[in-house]
Amino acid sequence: MSTGFFRDITEIPFEGADSTNPLAFRHYSPNEVVMGKRMEDHLRFATCYWHNFAWPGSDPFGGQTFDRPWFPADSMELAKLKADVAFEMFTLLKSPYYCFHDADVRPEGANFAENTKNLNEIVDYFAQKQEETGVKLLWGTANLFSQVKFMSGASTNPDPDVFAFCAATIKTCMDATHRLGGENYVLWGGREGYETLLNTDLAKEDAQMGRMLNLVVEHKHKIGFKGEILVEPKPQEPSKHQYDYDTATVYGFLKRHGLENEVKVNIEQGHAILAGHSFEHEIATATSLGILGSIDMNRNDYQSGWDTDQFPNNVPEVALAYYHILQDGGLKTGGTNFDAKLRRQSLDAEDLLIAHIGGMDVCARGLKAAAAMIEDGTLPNFVKDRYADWDKPVNQSMLAGKESLDDIAARVEAQGINPKPRSGKQEYLENVVNRFV
């Protein structure tokens, strides 16, 4: 049923590449088959609650610009109105999933018990909305960064009462996610880092963060949650240095705390850029380590040095991201979540739809380009051929530890091995990519 927020918009049709209708898909057609699978099942789009329905349009230098009928969202009545509009938007966009933090969806209570009561009430309402619309929960998470109590960290806080409050909050959010059939649970350590080493004990904070994540995994198994536990890497902002800096850093943390087989990563394009990487680098790193879980598809402004959370508009970047995802077998329980927000000057309700339509079309084009690159075979076959000599028994022997340095040195001398450089053909391969994007 229409809430009236989007006025007379009743559906977002697919009209094809020649359409100029801003409220129509040009490339995203959910039932189109790509590499033997429906496009919807490849992309697994999710629409986020926080930037769309909780963010007021503020930035570090200015306050609210958006006028939403559910603001200030300080009552259950307004929280339910917000849910009505949210699920209407999910349905209009044909978005099969959504994501939320607890603080996005419930009124803030006076204490933990009141927060839990409010969350449970809105979860009841969400369960009804999911039943009515067919929209599912990709993942839930807890906001452990906005309030002043988290200014010195959440699990890494020097105050053990904050650690306990965070643990209790995570439990309620995991329980809510499980009840709603969520397919993952995400932990983003927005304050899990430091501003200065002058007041920080790195060893203590690492141990605390490791214990919290072990508690999460223990609770997952206790309640029978079948989804993945995901950590979202981010290098900085708001902290000077955050402990989940990038995918490789997170993997080292997981290994250190015995969690490498229990936890995967949720990779955001914008965070990859802040870490000095590309999105494809972070995804390729995760797939090589076996820890790719899900992705957040939002970009940064390359002229700004902070996390601007813009909708994707660069097809070549997106295509290379999906190229690595498809080579890894595609997204499993994860999906493509738009952790993106309107610009604060985009005031109209329809701007929410237009932004997502454009992002979904860019992802659809990127997915099809990635699939075409794989089916063409030029790129994967080049890489395979480049490393082919490693398949020879003598070279496998080196990798298997069957030769010592002395053995290898003797063989090099006896056989007169004197390798000649081989071209990496980078420009050729870049030109191959340009055939498809």
Automatic annotation (TrEMBL):
Cofactor(s) listed in the protein's UniProt record: Mg(2+)
Binding site for Mg(2+) 1: 232, 268, 296, 339
MF GO annotations: magnesium ion binding; xylose isomerase activity
GO cellular component: cytoplasm
Subcellular localization: Cytoplasm
Annotated active site: 101, 104
Record keywords: Carbohydrate metabolism, Cytoplasm, Isomerase, Magnesium, Metal-binding, Xylose metabolism
Binding-site residues, Mg(2+) 2: 268, 271, 307, 309
Gene3D superfamilies noted in UniProt: Divalent-metal-dependent TIM barrel enzymes
Predominant location category: cytoplasm
Annotated EC: 5.3.1.5
Family: Belongs to the xylose isomerase family.
Name of the featured protein: Xylose isomerase
Organism annotation: Parasedimentitalea huanghaiensis
